[in-house]
Structures are given as C-alpha cells and as structure tokens.
Amino acid sequence: MSPLLLCGRNVEGLSTFEVAENDMQTDTAKVEIQPNHVEDEKPWKEFMRAFIRHRSALIGSIIILLLILIAILAPVLTSYEYSARSDDLNQAPSAEHWFGTDEMGRDVFTRVIYGARISLWVGFFAVTGSIVFGSFLGLIAGFYGGWRDTIISRFFDILLAFPGILLAIAIVTILGPGLNNALIAIAIINIPTFGRLMRSSVLRVKEEDFILAARAIGMKNSRILFHHILPNCWTPIMVQGTLSFATAVIEAAALGFLGLGAQPPEPEWGTMLSDSRPFIQTAPWTMIFPGLAIMLTVLGFNLLGDGLRDIFDPRMKQ
Amino acid sequence: MSQSVLEISELQLHFFTDKGVVKAIDGVDITVNEGEIVGLVGESGCGKSVTSLAVMGLVPNPPGKIVGGTIRFAGQDITHWTNKQMRKIRGKDISMIFQEPMTSLNPLFTIGDQMVEAIRIHKKCSKKEAQAMSLSMLEKVGIKRKGILDLYPHQLSGGMRQRVMIAMAMVLNPRLLIADEPTTALDVTIQAQILDLMRSLNKEYGTSILLITHDLGVVAEMCDRVIVMYAGQVVEEADCCHLFKNPTHPYTQGLLKSIPKLDGNEKRLYSIPGQVPHPLRMPQGCRFAPRCEYVMDHCWSQKPELLETEKGHLSRCWLHQAKEGSGNNGETNATNATVESS
C-alpha cells in the first residue's frame, strides 16, 4: 500500500493550493500540506488517517468487511442448509426464517448469506483475472508501441465494440453455462478497461525523467518495465479494480438471472431473483432480500472505489 | 596531449518525422580528453542535449537515427552499438546527470534502493556492500545525514536530489560524466555548491566531464575548453579563457554581449536579433547568416567549415576564412585557409 500512497502524495505536493482549497470545503481527505510533517509520518499511517477521514471510503469498507465476514461465517450464522427444502413454502419472514422461505421451502436468509460467498468469489477472481491480463497487455502496448500496440489496442477495440453483457452472454454460450464460465466471461469483458487504463498510464510514466535516468545507468528494459513503470501505474488500476468489482457482481447476477451463470441449487443472488420471479406478488421477500444484497455489495465497492480515488488524487472534486 | 576519452567526429543525427527530416545534429565534432572539463554551450534546441543522448545511445530510434560520423569512447567506436552493448557501459563508464533533479528519481523507491540498484547493475556485490558504497559516495557529495538511504526523493530538496543524482552517477567511478544542464533548475547558491562539487570530483577521480549548459557564467567558472553549438553545428571551439577574451564567431560574440554586466550603464540588454531557424527550413549557407551582423553575400549560399583560426581555436565563419575561397565550396577552402584573428 505504501507505494500507492506515495504516488498520491507526490501529486499532493504539486498541488498544494488545490489541497488547501479542498480542506476548506470539506473535512474529508485532509492531507498533509507541510512537507516537514510528511517526513515524520510513516506512509501507511498517513494513508489510514486520510482513509478514516474519508466518510464514504470508510462506510464502503465497513460494508465490504461485513460482507466478507458474513461469507466466511455463513455456517455459523445459520442453522439451515442452503439447499435444504422444507414444507413451509413461500413463508413470510418470521423469527424462524428471518427472510422467509422460497418456493421450495428453503430459508432465504441462509441462501442470501451463502450467496455472498459466490458473489465475492466471482467478483474477486474475475477482477483479478482482468487486472492481470489487461495490465500485462496494456503494459506491453504502452511501453513498446509500434505493431504490438496496434495489435493489442485493436483487440481492446474489438472487445469494447460489443456491449459488455452481450459479449459475456456470447462467451458463456460458447463455453457452456455455469458459474466458472460466467467468471471467465466477466474477466474477459473487463480486460480492455484495465488494458487501456494501464496503457495510458504507461505512456505517461515512460516519458518521465527518472525512466530516462534509469536507462542512463544501464538498466534493462524488463527491469524498467516491471520495477519502475508498473508500480507508478498502479493507483488508477487499484481504483478501477474496486469499482469493477461492483460491476462484476452485477454481471454475475445478470448471467445468473438469465440462467447462464450459477446453476440451481447454487444460492447465487441473480439466480435467486430469476427463480422467484413468478412469486413477486405472493412472496416478494424472495426477491427483495437477494436484490438488497446485490445493491449493498455494489454500493460498498462503489463507495470504497470512489473514496480511494479521492484519497489517491486530491485534485479530484469530491 | 593527453588521451581522449570521448571523440565525436562529423556526427550527423537526423530525426525522420512525418513533416520531413529534422537535422538535429549536422556535423558535430567534440573531443573530451582525460580529466578535462569541456563545456558545450548553445541556446535551447541547438542540439546540445541530443548530442549527449547520442553518446549514451538513448536517442529514441525511430525517429532519431545517426546517419553519419562516429562516436568513439575510450578508443572504441560505439556509434552503432546495440542497446545491449551500450547498457554495459552506461552508468559504469559513461554516466549522465540530468537537468531536473526533482523528477529524475523514482518517487516510489528510497534513495538507498535506487543507489544500490545502480551499483548492482554493473557490479556483483551484496546489498550490504552496495549500501556501504552508496553511503560513502553520498558523504563525498556532501550528504552526511543519518538514515539518508531510507528517505524517499520527495523528502529531499532539489539541491540534495541533484547531489544524490551525482552520487549515483559517480559511484562506479566512470571515465566520463555527461552533465546536461545540471544546475539550471537550482537556486543560484545551490548552483555554486553543485559546480564546486563537480569540480572537486573531477580533480579527485580524474573523471572527464562534458558539461552541457546555456549559462556562460557556469562555463567560465568550470571549463577547460568550450564548444559553442548553433542550430545543430559546432560553430566555435576554444580554450575557456581564450574564448571569453577573443570570440571569433559572431554568434559567440553575440552570446557574450548578452550577458548582463554589473557595471552596466546600458539601458537595455543586448540580444541577438532574429530567431533560431526552423529545423525543417535551415538556411542554405551559413546557418547563422540570417541573424549575423557581419553577413556577406557568399554566407547565404555557401556553408563555412569549422577551421582553425589560431592554434586550438576553431571557428565556423567566413570572416576568418580565406576570402579568395568565396565561390568555391568549403572543402577547397580547408586547404588554403589562412590563420586570421580579430
């Protein structure tokens, strides 16, 4: 985390005026203005301070932490099995079934909290996959330019020419429905986002004086690329990654809803929405709670992503 | 005469752009001898920095390409060395320091990390040894602060960073240090310190220095020999004292006239009239002709050669070359050039 922070602070130093202005407007993201103070503080500590002062980042991370806890502790939090049926079909929420039961008599609360596991899992690996492949391609395209750049950039353009979810549907159709294939599809459609972001950062960073200086001491291209350019491009990827996590959760739910993602009886939120569609009037809780879960997850990641962006780049208007 | 470390002769480096060929360097001869400090002077865009990058093999190709001439370093012709070959001597035998100390260090790594890296690229040694080397070098450049190796670049001032850059460049004891406007971005007081430092390193290690600058004051203070460049060509070369006392090229004369004087009674500072020619539309004859106050007819059509006006003093100007040569081209002139000083 510390390199990221430093990157942000470097920007702060250059825009002291704007930082000061921000401080007057809100009390969030209060960052060090005097370089003397910065010197005495550990980067990590400074980051934590800015983070805690930034309300939406804090709320977002609390939501996400709670989600992660719920996902991990799911077996402890409920005494039901997520696929266990009972005779109580479509029952309203009660002390026994907090979120009611669905059309097969399964406990909705149990399914929602197990669903958190699936959504976080899909989100995490889909985003990690797109970051790894997208960043690598963007790095090559931006650093070497020429024909490599042409090929990679056109590849991104082709991917971006389709609406994301349509492309995901096409990919899942080819690979066959299922949670893992949905994950792969989501990873693929997000590659150009990270690729282009990385490419533009690389184009900026590679013109920096310290890269020329690194060459002038005889450093190899590969080392310059991975040790000097990559770390300096990390911040926007980090922010975009957090925001993309939210989109990935929605996309996973959408594919689930269309029957292309997680298959029954997997308690995937999108699948649950789809399954309970006929009962929207008689048993609305079967849709409301998975829907709320999706909304909260997306909200959490969006808040955190926006917060990180503000913390790393104080020039951004909040 | 001592052995030459760097010998650039007749170097031509052109940039092939969409709009045409930019002859950024068009006939540059520079010799730097062992232990010598040579100043390379000229206004912005005259090709000083490109020359230094060409020596390092760091001119981006494409669009830049060496189309003629040679660069010899320590007796070896390095003009067309591959990137891989050049990498072995960069930082070890030829080092470079840059104009902008504020941005020449990677903001994400500590001073120690970056110095250790610079050492370990060329020298097999443990991290501890490299750190010790870094510390002693940093001490030599005047940074004695404890824990300096753990500081990040933003925690240092511009002058300190330039010292770090110098330490990084000097730590492997290179034979040639190219300093590309090392003091331009610094306060005047810090400038003097940095120049002192470079001179003492030159004395102590015998490192040759090619000092690129547009500041004639810096040159007067530092250099043994001065080379003046204009629009991609060397227009005059002489001993430092000699050049300041007795400039022969009208461009050099103009440069010297445009230095403000302390006893100045003049109301306005002199400036050379006109502008540097557009890189794509260089004059046919002498490149300085459009701005020269002594311009003669044949200056417009014929290129003057860089010839000796007296011993060790070269000048690229028709004023000091055989008048009877007018009408012929420069090459015949070279044979019957007369020594003429103003």
From TrEMBL, chain A:
The keyword Transferase does not apply. Keywords: Cell membrane, Membrane, Transmembrane, Transmembrane helix, Transport. It is found in: Cell membrane. CDD domains: TM_PBP2. The keyword Transmembrane helix applies. InterPro entries: BP-dependent_transpt_permease, MetI-like, MetI-like_sf, OppC_N. One of its GO terms (biological process) is transmembrane transport. This is Peptide/nickel transport system permease protein.
From TrEMBL, chain B:
It comes from the Bacteria. It holds the Pfam family oligo_HPY. Its main location: membrane. GO terms for biological process: peptide transport. SMART domains: AAA. One of its GO terms (molecular function) is ATP hydrolysis activity. SUPFAM superfamilies: P-loop containing nucleoside triphosphate hydrolases. Keywords: ATP-binding, Cell membrane, Membrane, Nucleotide-binding, Transport. Belongs to the ABC transporter superfamily. PANTHER family: DIPEPTIDE TRANSPORT ATP-BINDING PROTEIN DPPD (PTHR43297:SF2), OLIGOPEPTIDE TRANSPORT ATP-BINDING PROTEIN APPD (PTHR43297). This is Peptide/nickel transport system ATP-binding protein.
